[in-house]
Amino acid sequence: MATGGTRGTRLLGGRIPYIDGPLKVTGQAEYTDDIRRPGMLVGRLLRSPWAHARILSVDTSAARALPGVAAVLTGEKYPTPFGVLPITHDETAIAIGKTRYVGDIVAAVAAVDERTAERALELIRVDVEPLPEYTDPRMGVEKVAEPIHARGLLGTNIQKEVVQHFGDVDAAFAQATHRVRVHGRFAGVTHAFTEPLVTIAEATADGRLTVYSATQVPHYLHRALSEVLGIPMHRIRVIKPEVGGGFGGKSDPLPHEIVCAALSIETGRPVKMLLDREDVFYTNHGRHPTDNEVRIATDAEGRILAYDIDALIDGGAWSSFGTVTTYYNGILAMGPYRIPNFRYHGRRVYTNKPPSGAMRAHGGTNLRYSIEVGLDEIAEATKLDPFDLRTRNALPPNSTTINDFRITSTSFLKCLAAARERSGWDSKFRKLPYGRGVGLGCGFYISGSNSPIHFKPVMPQSTVHLKVDMDGGIAVHSMQADIGQGSNTLLAAIVAEVLGVDLERVRVPRVDSDVSPIDIGSYSSRVTFMMGNAARRAAEDLRAQLLRAASHRTGHPVEQLEVAYERIQVRHRPDVGVTFMEALHAAMERAGALTATGAYSSPPMGGSFKGARAGTAPAYSFGAYVAEVAVDPETGLYRAEKMWAAFDCGRPLNRLAVEGQVEGSIHMALGQVMGESMNYRGARLLNPSLLEYKIPAPAQMPEIEVLLVGDDDPEGPFGAKEAGEGPLIAALPAMGNAIYDAVGVRCYELPITPDRIVRGIEDRRKEGRAWKGA
Amino acid sequence: MHLDPFELSQPTTIEEAVRLRAEHVDGSDYLAGGTDLLPNYKMHLNVRPRLIALGNVAGLDGISLDRIGAMARLADLERDRAFASSYPGIGEAIREIATPLVRASGTVGGNLLLETRCFFFNQSEFWRASLGYCLKADGDRCHVVPQKEKCYATFSGDLAPTLEVLDAEVEIAGADGRRRVPLERLYDAQGDGIHRHHMAPGELLVAVYLPKDARERVATYLKLRVRPSFDFPELGVAAAGRFDGDRVLGLRLGLGGVETRPRRFDELTDPVVGSRLSDERIRAIAEGVVRQSRPVHNTFLAPEYRKRMVGVFVRRALTKVRDSARVA
Question: Which CATH class name applies to B1-58?
Answer without folding.
Answer: alpha beta
